[in-house]
Amino acid sequence: MNLLPAALSVAGLKIRYGKREVLRGLDLEVTKGEIFGLLGPNGAGKTTLIRTICGRLKPIAGQVSIVGQPVSRQSLRRIGLVPQDIALYPHLTARENLEVFGQLSGLTRPQALSAMEWASEAANIRERLDERIDILSGGWKRRVNIAAAILHRPDLLILDEPTVGVDVDARNGLHDVIQQLSQAGMGVLLATHDLDQAELLCARVGFLRGGVIAPQGNPRALIDETFRGQREIIIELRQNPTPAQARALDKSGFSPSNGSLSWSRIGQEADRSAAALAEAFERAGLSTREIRFREPGLDSLFIHLSRESASAPEETAA
Ligand SMILES: Nc1ncnc2c1ncn2[C@@H]1O[C@H](COP(=O)(O)OP(=O)(O)OP(=O)(O)O)[C@@H](O)[C@H]1O
Questions:
Q1: Which tens digits make up the pLDDT trace of 166-205?
Q2: 44 in contact with ligand 1, CB cutoff 6 A
Q3: Considering only CA atoms, which residue is closest to atom 26 of ligand 1?
Q4: pTM for the whole thing?
Q5: Residue 52 has pLDDT above 60, yes or no
Q6: Which residue numbers delimit the ABC transporter domain (predicted)?
Q7: Going from the N-terminus, what domains does the chain have, and what CATH number goes with each?
């Protein structure tokens, strides 16, 4: 049993924009040392949730606690936020940026120096400290942004899409940094569209849809519970389907997975049914380049849940 307060605890959170309730009784807990992956389609409310946790939006109901304390000037200081857009001074060096952020977070000069030392090590940016931000690549900027956000050693680190616009090597470097910060005891809330990243880094993930986070759990366990041994069939087409063909594919349970040439569906089909499927596609005027099967991943679950949400009726507050 964990008797320490969670890094973040959200209970029954409701947020409304005008008549539209975007968060409808949302519950979430991120423990210290945990990386929680916040997933959800565009417009589901991830930014709204992050803004509420950071005290920028006032809920109409529910509570947010940061290390056991309700949102206040004091408790907000225990959060480090790395926003989606790089928030650094482009004409200053990484070191100068950290100095500015150190001053802004109210640290004395000696405290700021030791914080800079620690944060540069933790974000692995020592070798670039004296370079100007505007000449750094996306990955390095992101790491400097993380260093700036952790200067005050927060208990909760919120990362909003940290690997957007970052190449593969830099993405791996960022993953190492995030993992080390969680191992050092920070709770990490990672909002991401990168499902491979979530599967790799997060012990738990949650899908924000319909104003709540459901389901939540270990990625592998959620995949196994949902698909129960079924496999994903992926069909690569030779040419884009017409709108009518795309509608027919959608009706048969297929979703486009990577542009409109690749379609996938979860099913019971065995390898030997690939030929029969290819024939059925040919009859519908769709020539197939490849049909393959694989174990479903978090991306398959995401597509499955997004389809479910899309077919659910939209609710509006009275
Ligand atoms: N200030 C606002 N006034 C009215 N509606 C808003 C406001 N901010 C966001 N919304 C709406 O609330 C919903 C949730 O928006 P939000 O930006 O939180 O989603 P998101 O999950 O962060 O999306 P994305 O992944 O695209 O960043 C959207 O339908 C959006 O249009």
A1: 888 889 999 999 999 999 999 999 999 999 999 999 999 9
A2: yes
A3: 42
A4: 0.90
A5: yes
A6: 8-235
A7: 8-216 (3.40.50.300), 231-295 (3.30.70)
